């Protein structure tokens, strides 16, 4: 059981929730803070005091006073009018994460929401009711208003939700699970939608996938090194300690571990003095991407425990401040940075693919074809990888440098963090497919070299990979192979192969 406190949620707990279906509960002490914060809101409404979002309109309408009799209508109107998401919906995993993250943020007790609303959010999680949330339409400041409004609509019995594989109306989903809809009162609609949970949820899912492909990238690159008779001197520990980057040292250590016992790798001068950069600089390039992942994880773990709505209620209601914690700039930067890390895994992977398929760069059959000329072999697989790498370069353009004023220029600088997180997810998916092509080519090259000569650990990768993608004996439709290997990399079942390589085991 993962207990949400508003302050302690970790990436490892998120993995357990998503991949092991570990249940979630609210901390009783945190719920007491929530109840105490709620009293302040009720006193404001009763007194008729003017406080943004409680007794006023929103955005440019912040100067419009709302009477006590209209506070419920105000909150319902808010989420209905703000549910302006467009495009394809987020995967259910992201929607589920949004529910958990929003509940956790509200459990900080700074939002003035009633405990029952948090209970309903967690009821949706426990029953597997996942709001249908369109991916596009958020500016990432004032938070993820449009996505979170679609999420909030399900709480009141409106909108749409996924339940047991069906897409239902929110009302039907609640009826089937016996969950009572809530009637939102003062500040509750605003507290539900003023936040960064869409960009953060997508960012977390992207980070977890990036972590997986990063580990597999090191293993695949090792197999490629053997297939190209690579020089292992470049991975010597002294070289990497001399530079001083921890992540670079760790990648080099993994490569040495994977390649230990190989009969295919070489030393300086045996065949050539030094390798091309795509082999020689694997620790430097992969290590730099791992540095980015460390930064991204730190920012995501801060954000998943952050109060990101407005206004915030402090000191038992004696201090209520309108601020800007909903602004997604920290996550926008982190996601743009993550895009670069994943794109570089793909960039260098595609160059290694080229070195395996180009007969002018190796002593293998042209394009790894069993019958070069009559059969094209891996020729067009390299095209496909090159296309994905090129697409990544356009997606890698930073979303965070853009801003468009909104709400009659009241909200005149926005983060575009949700766009950044969505593009990060696309780049990571593309990188995974590029790595799948590299693995297919490395296994085929190993067939020509003799799989029995592989190092014990890379041989395990080869053997498990061959269960997913058979040896290429003649041309076939390689689309299925590429997608099958890409899915295998994503599902994490290969992780046990890598145990003993001083890598942290992933939750799956």
From TrEMBL:
InterPro entries: Aromatic_Lyase (IPR001106), Fumarase/histidase_N (IPR024083), HutH (IPR005921), L-Aspartase-like (IPR008948), Phe/His_NH3-lyase_AS (IPR022313). Pathway: Amino-acid degradation; L-histidine degradation into L-glutamate; N-formimidoyl-L-glutamate from L-histidine: step 1/3. It is found in: Cytoplasm. There is a cross-link at residues 141-143 (5-imidazolinone (Ala-Gly)). GO terms for biological process: L-histidine catabolic process to glutamate and formamide; L-histidine catabolic process to glutamate and formate. Pfam families: Lyase_aromatic. SUPFAM superfamilies: L-aspartase-like. Keywords: Cytoplasm, Histidine metabolism, Lyase. The modification 2,3-didehydroalanine (Ser) is found at residue 142. Contains an active site 4-methylidene-imidazol-5-one (MIO), which is formed autocatalytically by cyclization and dehydration of residues Ala-Ser-Gly. GO terms for cellular component: cytoplasm. This is Histidine ammonia-lyase. It comes from Fictibacillus arsenicus. The gene is hutH.
């Amino acid at each position: 059981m993962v207990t949400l406190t508003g302050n302690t949620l970790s990436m490892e707990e998120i993995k357990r929730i998503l991949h092991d279906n570990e249940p979630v509960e609210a901390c009783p002490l945190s719920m007491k803070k929530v109840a105490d914060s709620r009293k302040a809101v009720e006193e404001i409404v009763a007194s008729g005091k003017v406080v943004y979002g409680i007794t006023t309109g929103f955005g440019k309408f912040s100067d419009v006073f709302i009477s006590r009799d209209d506070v419920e209508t105000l909150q319902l109107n808010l989420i209905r009018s703000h549910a302006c998401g467009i495009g394809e919906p987020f995967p259910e995993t992201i929607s589920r994460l949004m529910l958990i993250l929003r509940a956790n943020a509200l459990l900080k007790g700074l939002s003035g929401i009633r405990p029952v609303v948090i209970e309903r959010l967690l009821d949706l999680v426990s029953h597997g009711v996942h709001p249908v949330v369109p991916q596009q339409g958020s500016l990432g400041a004032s938070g993820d208003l449009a996505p979170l409004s679609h999420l909030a609509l399900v709480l009141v019995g409106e909108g749409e939700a996924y339940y047991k594989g069906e897409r239902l109306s929110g009302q039907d989903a609640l009826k089937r699970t016996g969950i009572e809809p809530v009637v939102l009162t003062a500040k509750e609609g605003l507290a539900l939608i003023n936040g960064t949970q869409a960009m953060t949820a997508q960012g977390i899912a992207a980070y977890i996938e990036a972590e997986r492909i990063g580990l597999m990238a090191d293993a695949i690159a090792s197999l490629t090194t053997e297939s190209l008779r690579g020089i292992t001197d470049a991975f010597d520990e002294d070289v990497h300690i001399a530079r001083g980057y921890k992540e670079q040292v760790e990648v080099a250590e993994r490569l040495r571990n994977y390649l230990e016992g190989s009969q295919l790798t070489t030393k300086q001068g045996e065949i050539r003095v030094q390798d091309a950069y795509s082999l020689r600089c694997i620790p430097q390039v992969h290590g730099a991407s791992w540095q980015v992942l460390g930064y991204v994880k730190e920012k995501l773990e801060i954000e998943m425990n952050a109060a990101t709505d407005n206004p915030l209620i402090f000191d038992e209601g004696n201090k209520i401040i309108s601020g800007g914690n909903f602004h997604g700039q920290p996550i926008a930067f982190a996601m743009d940075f993550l895009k670069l890390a994943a794109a570089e895994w793909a960039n260098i992977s595609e160059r290694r693919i080229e070195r395996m398929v180009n007969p002018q760069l190796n002593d293998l059959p042209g394009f790894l074809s069993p019958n070069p000329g009559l059969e094209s072999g891996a020729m067009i697989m390299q095209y496909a990888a090159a296309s994905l790498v090129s697409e990544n370069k356009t997606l890698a353009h930073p979303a965070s440098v853009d801003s468009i004023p909104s709400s009659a220029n009241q909200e005149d600088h926005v983060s575009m963090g949700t766009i950044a997180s969505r593009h990060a997810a696309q780049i990571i998916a593309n990188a995974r497919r590029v790595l799948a092509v590299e693995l297919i080519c490395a296994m085929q090259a190993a067939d020509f070299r003799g799989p029995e000569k592989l190092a014990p650990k890379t041989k395990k990768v080869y053997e498990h990979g061959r269960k997913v993608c058979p040896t290429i004996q003649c041309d076939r439709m390689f689309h299925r192979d590429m997608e099958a290997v890409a899915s295998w990399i994503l599902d994490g079942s290969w992780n046990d192969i890598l145990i003993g390589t001083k890598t942290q085991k992933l939750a799956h």
